[in-house]
Amino acid sequence: DRVVGRFETTCKKAYDLDVPLLIDAEESWMQDAADELVEEMMRKYNKEKAIVFNTLQLYRWDRMDYLKELHAKALKEDFKIGIKTVRGAYMEKENERALEYNYATPICATKSESDSNYDETVAYIVEHLDRISLFSGTHNELSSYKLIELMDQKGISHNDTRIWFGQLYGMSDHISFNLAEKGFNVAKYLPFGPVRDVMPYLIRRAEENTSVAGQTNRELELIKKERLRRKI
């Protein structure tokens, strides 16, 4: 009851202030309960537009099916959907637990499958912008390019409020800067809280970034180059 009460208070405040609220994803064995709670908040506060956003971890092979089911509910019950797309942060834990309890892992078998799942889900959302708003949370350059191309192909304005890009503060600033420079909606995620809680979060993000082949080294080189440029 306390959890539901906190969600209710926070979502109502976001609605009153007209500020989108993005709710993070959890491990698969907790996500069903989280989904039900966030859906209830969407029914209440997403009548005119997406204020409350749920997060899809798309290294899970089953989340596109969930999105389609949610889309059908939204059409039937007449509410808007907010979706933040990410690849995911608990791969080792998910696979280890699946092995321990002898069930099929919810994680895609390969990195390329996760990438395809991410891009296909983003494309599905862009096809249904009349009902679903998108927050694309990714440090992956290729996925960002693909979303840009989709928007251009469909004549969607760069500053259409139904599509946002997001990167973590201090990571992939070259992506954020160039998107913003071209007029896209961009947000930087700023972790806030006690060090003991924030550090594990940041470590998971750093581990995720290493999965993008060569991107971390390239980012460091870009930072060095920019520092040199500013000295001149």
Q: Would you mind describing this structure in some detail?
A:
This protein is of the alpha/beta class and 232 residues long. Helices cover 56% and strands 13% of the residues. It has one domain: TIM Barrel. It is built from 9 helices and 6 strands; from the N terminus they run H-E-H-E-H-E-H-H-E-H-E-H-E-H-H. Helix 1 (2-17) packs across helix 2 and helix 5 packs parallel to helix 6 (141-153). The longest helix is centred in the first third of the chain and has 18 residues, at 28-45. The model has no long low-confidence stretch (mean pLDDT 93).
Helix content: 55-70%
Write out the strand line-up for the largest beta sheet, numbering strands in chain order: 1-2-3-4-5-6
Regions with pLDDT < 50 over 5+ consecutive residues?
none
If classified by CATH, what would the architecture be? Alpha-Beta Barrel
CATH topology: TIM Barrel
Count every beta strand, where a strand is a DSSP E run of 2 or more residues: 6
- Termini separation: 59 Å
Quaternary structure? single chain
* CATH first level: Alpha Beta
